[in-house]
């Protein structure tokens, strides 16, 4: 069986840590830049700030799921649903 073709991976970098305030408490979230970009776009479409969206995700997540994981899974679900520019081929 021939070797599979190598994967064409997107540009990658280490997670970027950003501080947010949730219910008056400062916390930090580490996400890869692609997730930060889509999170900003989703927040813009929902007429909120990224921090406000992160707070909403925090309030909705199960207690045994970490905040960064919840944010990533939320962004993934939104992208798969086609709610971000990144999810549409034309960018429109």
From TrEMBL:
Domain Ribbon-helix-helix as annotated: residue spans: 16-78
InterPro entries membership: RHH_dom, RHH_sf
Name of the protein described by the UniProt record: Ribbon-helix-helix domain-containing protein
Species of origin: Paracoccus cavernae
